[in-house]
Amino acid sequence: MLLEGATPQRFGDLTVGLIDGWWCYRDTQRRDYALMPRPSWLALFGELGFADAIAFPGEDAGPVMRQQAVYVAEAPAAPGEPARWIVVPDARGVADALEKGLRARGDVVERVDAGDEAALGAALARPCRALVHLAALDAAVDDSTSPETLMAGQQALVGGALAIVQRLAAHEGGAPPPLWFVTRGAQATAPGESADPAQATLCGFAHVVAIEHPELACRRIDLDPHADGEASAGALAGELLAAGSEDQIALRGASRLVRRLVRGAARPASETAAEARIDPARSYLVTGGLRGLGLRVARWLANRGARRIALLGRHAPDERARGVIAELEAGGAAVLVLQGDVACAADVDAALARIAAQSGPLAGIVHCAGVLDDGVIAGQAWPRFATVMGPKVLGTWNLHRQARDLDFLVFFASGASLAGSAGQANHAAANAFEDALAWYRQARGQPTVSIDWGPWAEIGAAVDRDVRSAGLAPISPADGLAALEFAMRGARPGGPFATAQVGVLDTDWSHLSEAEGGRLAPLFAELVAGVRAERPASKDPVAPVAPAESLRDRIRAAMPNRRLALLRDHVREQTVKVLGLARAESLDIHEPLRQLGLDSLMAVELRNRLGKSVERMLPATLTFDHPTVAALVDHLASVAFAEEIVAAETAEVPVAAAAPAAGGLDDLSSDELAERLASRLDRLSGPENP
């Protein structure tokens, strides 16, 4: 891009024109004045290999606008080695078209099937630009898809992606290639738009890949479901070659959309007046209804006027559940207790048949059932995914296919599917299915909402977790049920809900910028910007707050003999935060971190914290290879601060033959005294004196 004068500038002639340089141009064959006209510039761009050169405004602009022009042209590609790509192909033609386009520009494309670990290992032995995963483009569902077919497809898609991520994370011999997960129509981008739940599970899984393995630079791109293979491949190639900072992109027609979480605004009364109606003459089913959240929802339904409530659970009701059931029945509700697994189609059929026979027509379902089997991606396996997907994928699909003509269907999903949660890759994938199915149903006029809950207080799977360390506060049951009622409102009675998906979390979002160390994920940019805009400005004029110094800046500013101690203090401080210890001084830097309680999820968090501090990607096996704070410090000093610490320690310095007598200190300057004291303190806090 170039801004240049395009016509004679008389003011310039009278000012800079007084110096010889204004007139000392050599290309007299192109011009007879110091400034070249538009046609000469455009011709020059063409001669130099620039493409699509344009000048604006053009020659036909008015007399003032004609005096200057902005020239835009595409620079010629620099010669170099052809890029190499690894592609996990689809069977619908996108991989074929993408390969054709990349090869046309001289690149090399190597195809690898998702389940061929040997071929993937061989492909990763050579440097490549990125690994592009297209297998999700073959996944799709419609109402005729059987539960068995659905889960077989999930095992191939998500199970295959899991194996690829584990192989990339264990890659040796340099940084692994960036990873692109490609879907088509897996995400809804506007009200009323459908989504494909079979592909959406990969999106949920990918959110956790991005958290646990930042070294893979995982990007997610959702292609236009209405575009053909050629157009999709062309758009995808453009994104691959640009590879900007956005990591979640959707292409719709000529529009390029980026994914953002935004604060839910209060809707106008005309949109919120239509509440979901509870009909006392019809029945309502709560899955997972014999424990925590399900029992709360049953009470809420009864308080809203429901008189026929069915509670489905895998186990017989315990003492607490029996107490709630007795309370509901004392209040006038008829409660039908059903035992069965919502993931089993036969159990769902039997439950619906009993409801129809004993409670009357079914009007609505609140699906609260779910199980957890947390673990970092490196330690996961498909059977653990299948366990978590049971109630969330199979159960949700069974309810969708077998329960017809409902007034509403509500999914209790998880905030993990919105943005990911370390250690919950299977949970995020399973809940993303529910989110997409809600969009799928709403697009077909069936009132459905998926609520991505944060942790609840007193009840739910997160009761025993320290969620505040992640910047979240538990949702009180009263607030949660109020949010449930709000989410079930629509624009008109009996019509679709106002939105198909909503996240409900108790947080002020300000913790995000601090947790990211200044490198905020694009997904949260608008939320954090909104928080900053809402903060009241101080009435007292104060100087702007300077950004915090990086660890590298602090180390460079320290005296050479203090740098290693500074790094050691930082690593110990981060380790204490992850372990939840009270004081950094209480941590023995030589004690194995596993003995101090470091589990695999903590290891991921510590690796990510230290990676941000040292401004580089660290291997997933960091705490395994360097199991103590002292070992971590030595490793980071050598790989991240070799110039600042290692070089300073190995540099030759004059050493006195003997310690100076006390009287000799009088001859030292204040700076020399400070350095000598710091050196003595550093030795006292060294590895030999922990």
SSE arrangement:
Elements lengths: L1 E4 L4 H5 L23 H10 L3 E6 L11 E7 L9 E5 L5 H11 L3 E4 L5 H8 L5 E4 L13 H23 L9 E6 L12 H16 L6 E5 L5 H14 L5 E5 L2 E4 L10 H4 L10 E5 L4 H12 L4 E6 L5 H12 L3 E6 L5 H14 L3 E6 L14 H21 L5 E7 L1 H4 L5 H18 L5 E6 L23 H11 L13 E4 L6 H5 L9 H10 L16 H7 L5 H17 L20 H15 L7 H4 L3 H11 L2 H9 L19 H15 L6
Parallel strand pairs: 4-5, 4-6, 6-7, 7-8, 8-9, 11-12, 11-14, 12-13, 14-15, 15-16, 16-17
Antiparallel strand pairs: 1-3, 2-3, 9-10
Helix pairs in contact: 3-7, 4-5, 5-6, 5-12, 6-14, 9-10, 11-12, 12-14, 18-19, 19-20, 19-22, 22-23
Describe the structure.
The chain is of the alpha/beta class. It is built from 24 helices and 17 strands. A seven-stranded mixed beta sheet has the order 5-4-6-7-8-9-10, with helices on both faces. A seven-stranded parallel beta sheet has the order 13-12-11-14-15-16-17, with helices on both faces. Helix 6 packs antiparallel against helix 14, helix 11 packs parallel to helix 12 (382-402) and helix 19 packs across helix 22 (629-639). The longest helix is centred in the N-terminal third of the chain and has 23 residues, at 147-169.
